[in-house]
Design a protein that fits this description.
The chain is mainly alpha-helical. It has helices spanning 5-33, 42-49, 60-69, 87-94, 98-114, 119-128, 132-154, and strands at 40-41, 73-77, 80-83. A 3-stranded antiparallel sheet has the order 1-3-2.
């Protein structure tokens, strides 16, 4: 379906990983591929996948350790991680069902809002998750800062 050779190779690797890692870890991977950028904090991953009690994904730390061991993720330091290759989250994201993408974006937005991420970033994830009411709320919160930034860069 119009894949480059590199994308096809990454997709094949993802399919192979899915059979080895199972649904739980692959759902975790789908969740983090929508974060954006190539660096994500452990605190964000924990907020995304733990809901006060035992995680629906088992131990987040065990899953992260497994993905680092399998060279899917790089450990930047004790608080941050990145994907081994930027192609992996792009290919994973492009092959997710629309409903999976929406759910993942809403999960990211909820975690980011708890961790006090910038309102515009939170709003973008609510928008991509198709929760337009919450997206507008977060964009309204971001507006004063965006106007101030715009005025500052005008000079």
């Amino acid at each position: 379906a119009g894949l480059t050779t590199v994308e096809a190779t990454v997709l094949k690797k993802l399919d192979c990983m899915a059979s080895k890692l199972g649904d739980e870890v692959m759902n975790f991977l789908k969740g983090i591929c929508v974060i954006g950028g190539n660096r994500f904090e452990r605190s964000l991953l924990e907020a995304m996948f733990q809901t006060g009690g035992p995680s629906e994904f088992g131990s987040v730390n065990l899953i992260i350790s497994d993905l680092v061991r399998r060279r899917v993720l790089n450990k930047i330091d004790h608080t941050a991680f990145s994907f081994k290759t930027a192609m992996l989250p792009r290919v994973q994201y492009s092959h997710m069902l629309a409903s999976e993408r929406r759910t993942a974006h809403l999960r990211v937005a909820g975690a980011m809002s708890k961790l006090k991420y910038p309102p515009y970033t939170v709003g973008l994830h609510y928008y991509e998750g198709e929760n337009y009411t919450k997206a507008l709320h977060w964009f309204d919160l971001a507006l004063p800062g965006l106007i101030e930034k715009r005025e500052y860069t005008k000079d």
